[in-house]
Amino acid sequence: MADDLPTPAEFIRRELENRGLTQQDLAFALCVPAAAVSQIASGRRGISAEMACSLGAAFGMPAKDILGLQKAAELQAELAKAKGPSPAVAKNAKIISTYPVRKMVKRGWIDGDRKTFDQQLATFFDVDSVDEVPHLAHAGKKSGYSDVPPEQLAWMFRVKHIARETVVPPFSKKALRGALPKLKAMTVEPEEARHVPRLLSECGIRFVIVESLPGGKIDGVCFWLKNNTAPVIGMSLRFDRIDNFWFVLRHELEHVLRGDGKKSAIIDADLDAAGDHLPPEEIAANEASLDFCVPKAEMDSWIARKTPYFSERDLVGFARRLGVHPGLVAGQLRMRTGNFKLFSRYLAKVRFAVVQSAIVDGWGQIAPVTGTGIDR
After folding, report:
1. Which residues have C-beta within 8 Å of that of residue 182, sequence separation ≥ 6?
2. What pLDDT is recorded for position 99?
C-alpha cells in the first residue's frame, strides 16, 4: 500500500477531526451503535460495502474510494504475512533475461533440471559458481568477456567444450602453410568443402561447427587449448554461401597463423559487414581472406575494366581463370559495389558438403560432450 494512503481507521479519525465531530456524532449520522464506529476507528473492524456507502454519503465522497482503502489495508495485511520471494527468483529472472536458456536446453548444451541448473550453468562457463558466470557476476567480479554479447559467449563456450574432446595430431604451422594451396584448390566447387575438416585435422587444428543461437550474429572464433599449443577454429555457417564460408575460414586460419587468440578468444561477428577502426589482427585476417578468395590486384583490375557493366559471361570467365567458384568473385563484387542483388544465383550453398565430415552441433544434431575433456 502506498505510504500516503491512509488505513480506514486513520481515514475516519482524520475526517472527524477535520469536521470537528466525535465518533458519537458519526454513529448518530450513520444510524449505527457508537461501538460500531469505535471498532472501525480503532482498526478492530473493517469497512463493508454497505458501510462504505453510508460513510460516502456522510462525508460527501464516492463510496468506492472509501472501500478502496479497505481493500488496500487487507492487501497490506496479506503481504505482511507472506514469507516473501525466494532469493533465487531474482537470480533466475536475471539468468533467463541474459542468456537464451530455453534454447540452450533445447540444443542439449545444458540440462533443464532445476535442482542442478545453477551448477550446470557454472560448469558450462568454466566457473565455480553461477554467481561468477559472465554477465551475471557482480560488478566487482566482471570477467574478460564483459563486452561479448551473451548469445555469442554461450556459442563460444559450446565450441570450447566440443573442441576439448576432439583428438588431432600436434599443431604444425608449417603443415598449415602447406595446406593453404590445397584449400585454395577446393574453392572451385561447393562439394570440395567436404575435405576441409580432414585437412585441418591433419594440421593439428580442432575444427568445430556449431549453429549460432538466435540473435548471435556470430561467424567464427579462434582460441587455443593445451597451454596455447592447440588451436581451435569454430564456425557457425550462419550464412550458407560459398563466398562467406571461404572468407570466414581463411580469416580464422590467419588468426591461427599469427598466433592470435592465445590471451583471449578472438570472436568474429558480422564479418560480412564493413568495419572502421579495426584492430591490426582483424585487418590482417581480412586482407588474407580477400586475397585468398580473389587476389586484390586481380579484382581491382577486373572491376576497372568491366565497370559499370558486369555480365555473367565475364564473371564466369574471370572465376575460371582464377580457378575459383564464380560465387567467390560474386561475393567480393557485391561487397565492393554495395549492390547485393548482383549474381545471387552463384552464391552456392556449402553446408551440405562441410557437415559430411565435420564435428557438427546444430540443425538437429547434438555433438556428444562427456565433460571429461581438458584444455591443459
Report:
1. 199
2. 94
Left (φ > 0), alpha (ψ -120 to 50) or beta: where does 363 sit?
left
Q: Quick one: CA dihedral 270, 100, 208, 191, positive or negative? A: negative
Partners of 267 in the β-ladder: 221
Full-model pTM:
0.81
- Grid coordinates 594440421 are at which residue? 203
Sorting pLDDT into bands at 50, 70 and 90, what band is 175? very high
pLDDT over 90 at 285, yes or no = yes
Task: Record the cell numbers describing residue 276, joined without a space.
Answer: 572502421
Please name the residue that has the C-alpha cell 580442432. Answer: 206
Residue type present at position 231: P
Tell the residue number behind the cell numbers 568474429, with chain if given: 268
pLDDT above 60: residue 199: yes
| Domains recognised in the chain with CATH numbers | 8-81 (1.10.260.40), 87-147 (no CATH), 159-361 (no CATH)
Interhelix angle 280-293/296-306, nearest 10 degrees:
60
For 348, residues 6+ apart whose C-beta sits below 8 A from its C-beta are 190, 241, 242, 325, 327
